[in-house]
Automatic annotation (TrEMBL):
Keywords: Cell membrane, Membrane, Transmembrane, Transmembrane helix. It comes from Flexilinea flocculi. This is Ribose/xylose/arabinose/galactoside ABC-type transport system, permease component. It is a multi-pass membrane protein. The keyword Cell membrane applies. One of its GO terms (molecular function) is transmembrane transporter activity.
Length: 263
């Protein structure tokens, strides 16, 4: 694999879908099996996601192993732990308090929408108004140049993956609440939807460019695509093909854009 090819793969986190599954199962089990409050379940799920993110960030920042490979490994670890922890069966929770996080309302607004807006605002502030955000763009564009300019590249990589794990844990809790259970199969394919959303939203696979607003649009496009294919009764197997083609086209357009900018 060439250095440029590795650069294209270097920032992809493949573990988010499995972290979603594991955190949802852990959170649901804290309530249904151990009888602890909902707050403890939420904190437990977030902690599991954060720990996986910290592990990813530590290994990636302290070694030269590409993040693509590290997160591929933790994807399988998290998925395996979810199956081992649950025995392959859903962990059901049907209390009204549990349902609030994923299926409740705050006034006229669904709780997941409020959570999404909060996450987007926080992430937007981090990326656009803080030093670490500027450093993330710099490291994404050229890690070596960022290192020479005095940026602590290891710190940036650690933060990015820890934050990704934390948000995956939050997504896992919301999804488990919405499905009234923690399921080891939850989150299957979420990493592909995430990649598709950011690429379609204009984030460069080469790193260094991309906006939260574009990712929101990309996520909406992928969501509409998924729902549209379901409404058209398109076979689920063909849906994978369609999303694969969408990702390929978006990456090719990004490739052409980067090639043109270098000229």
């Amino acid at each position: 694999m060439s250095q440029s090819d590795n650069h294209y793969l270097s920032g992809i986190d493949l573990s988010v879908g499995s972290i979603i599954a594991l955190t949802g199962c852990v959170g649901a089990a804290i309530v249904s099996r151990h009888g602890l409050p909902i707050a403890a379940a939420i904190l437990g799920g977030l902690l599991v996601g954060l720990l996986f993110g910290i592990f990813n960030g530590f290994v990636i920042s302290k070694t030269t192993i590409p993040p693509f490979i590290v997160t591929l490994a933790t994807m399988n670890i998290a998925k395996g732990l979810a199956y081992v922890y649950t025995g392959g069966a859903p962990v059901r929770v049907v209390t009204k308090e549990w349902q609030f996080l994923g299926a409740g309302y705050i006034g006229p607004f669904p709780t997941p929408v409020i959570i999404l807006i909060g996450v987007l605002i926080l992430t937007g502030i981090i990326m656009n108004k803080t030093q670490i955000g500027r450093h993330i763009y710099a490291v994404g564009g050229n890690a070596q140049a960022a290192q020479f300019s005095g940026i602590n590249v290891q710190k940036v990589k650690f933060f990015v993956h820890a934050y990704s794990g934390l948000l995956a844990g939050l997504a896992g809790m919301v999804l488990a609440s919405r499905m009234y259970s923690g399921q080891p199969t939850a989150g299957d394919g979420a990493e592909m939807d995430a990649i598709a959303a950011v690429v379609v939203g204009g984030t460069s696979m080469a790193g260094g460019s991309g906006k939260i607003g574009g990712t929101i649009i990309g996520g909406l496009i992928i969501g509409v695509l998924n729902n549209g294919l379901n409404l058209l009764n398109v076979n689920s197997f063909w849906q994978y093909v369609v999303k694969g083609v969408v990702i390929l086209l978006a990456v090719y357009i990004d490739f052409l854009r980067n090639t043109k900018s270098k000229r």
